[in-house]
Every structure is written in C-alpha cells, then in structure tokens.
Automatic annotation (TrEMBL):
Pfam families: 2OG-FeII_Oxy_2 (PF13532). Keywords: Dioxygenase, Oxidoreductase. Residues 107-205 form the Fe2OG dioxygenase domain. GO terms for molecular function: broad specificity oxidative DNA demethylase activity; cytosine C-5 DNA demethylase activity; ferrous iron binding. This is Alpha-ketoglutarate-dependent dioxygenase AlkB. Substrate binds at F57, G58, R59, Y77, R78, Y79. InterPro entries: AlkB-like, AlkB-like_sf, ALKBH2, Oxoglu/Fe-dep_dioxygenase_dom. 2-oxoglutarate binds at N114, Y116, H126, H184, R196, T200, R202. It comes from the Bacteria. GO terms for biological process: DNA alkylation repair. The keyword Hydrolase does not apply. It comes from Alloalcanivorax marinus.
C-alpha cells in the first residue's frame, strides 16, 4: 500500500491537523451515518470484552476500561505485556471495515477495542509503535457513543500539546509520524456519564 495512495484517499477528510515533525491527523465525521447507533449497541453487547490485568513497576493493576482484540487468524500481537492471537473477524464489523478501507485506502488486519464505561475510564500516555506494526504504523481510530477528549504531547515531554474532542461516528487517522514523535492518551472526564467505544484499527506486518 503506497503512502501516496493513502494521502490521496485522505484528501476526502473533513479536517486535517498538522503537528510538528510531519505528524498529521485526519478527521472524518459521519462515517457510517444512521447505522452507527445500532452498531454501537451491538458492539457493546456482543464483543468479547475483558478487563485485563497489567504489571506496572512490578504491581498488578486491572486496566481502567474494558478491552478486546480482534484480528486475522494467524496474526500475533503483543501490547501492555499481553500476548494476543488473531481468531478472525465477527460479521458485524464487516461493513465498517469496508468503509474504512474505502475512506483511507489502508487495509488493517487487526483492531483493539476499548470500552470506556464512563468518564472515569481512561487510557494513559503511550504510542502505538509495537514491533508487529512495522516501522511506519498507520492507526485508524473509530469512535462511537459519548464525546471524549483525546490528548497529544510530544514524545519525551510532559506537557500536553494538543486536544481533540472526538464524537460519535467519527474517524481519526494518525500518520506514522504521530506514533514516532507524539504520545496520546484519553484523560479522565468526571462530567461524562455515558459510555464510549473506540476501535483502533492497525496493520500487523510481521508474518503477513
Ligand atoms: O480511545 C481512544 O481514543 C484511544 C485509544 C488508543 O489510543 C489505543 O487503543 O491505542
Ligand atoms: Fe493508542
């Protein structure tokens, strides 16, 4: 998949955000339209949500959200010290996957689902740069349900540099430079009482 073909597709985006070091993010509003509502409820109810425990500085913590991993059969992916094997895709994700291919020209073969039950559920600062994603990872982040703030900061710095409020049925595409030069996080928002579901589609390149 050439970068030029991806960039040509991304010209359809509703908005583009240019950060330092060539890092770019594209926003697409109303990705599915009316069917997004039913998809949100189906995915909340039917995906195999878990609350994994991770070790941080030697201590076990349950992650502050629910997660699930879905990928092509035969793929292997490690994140947060946990190993995940792909077992194929549920039929319910097929139309969304097809739509994302059409919008972006990318062909992700795995997706990490995150279900934030309310504004107390969060994700800490990190980059999506696992070795399985290769040297130039594109990440397609699709959002359903409550609006939440998505924060960015330059890698190696403490201070937040950018904040994007992501809404229902919105797609955020991150260029590989975003993972190289920035970290992102989903901060706590006590006033948010409704759930939000996020699907970050990725391309596992090892053994493909
Ligand atoms: O929920 C979000 O918007 C961010 C999710 C994320 O960063 C990830 O899954 O790696
Ligand atoms: Fe991420």
């Amino acid at each position: 998949m050439s970068v030029n073909s991806t960039l040509a597709h991304l010209e359809q985006a509703s908005a583009v955000i240019e950060l330092d070091h060539g890092a770019r993010l594209w926003r697409f509003h109303r990705v599915l339209g009316a069917p997004a509502e039913a998809l949100f409820h189906t995915l909340c109810n039917e995906l195999p949500w878990e609350r994994p425990t991770v070790r941080v500085f030697g201590r076990a913590h349950a992650v502050p959200r629910l997660t699930c991993w879905i990928a092509d059969a035969g793929t292997h992916y490690r994140y947060s010290g946990l190993h995940h094997r792909g077992q194929g895709w549920p039929e319910v994700l097929a139309p969304l996957r097809q739509r994302l291919r059409r919008l972006t020209g990318r062909d992700p073969n795995g997706v990490l689902g995150n279900l934030y039950r309310d504004g107390d559920d969060t994700m800490g600062w990190h980059r999506d740069n696992e070795p399985e994603l290769g040297p130039a990872p594109w990440v397609l982040s699709y959002n359903l349900g409550a609006e939440r703030d998505f924060a960015l900061r330059r890698y190696g710095e403490h201070r937040q540099s950018d904040l994007i409020t992501l809404g229902h049925d919105e797609l955020l595409v991150m260029s590989p430079e975003v993972q190289r030069h920035y970290e992102h996080a989903l901060p706590r928002r006590r006033r948010v009482t409704a759930p939000r579901l996020n699907l970050t589609f990725r391309e596992i390149v090892t053994g493909r």
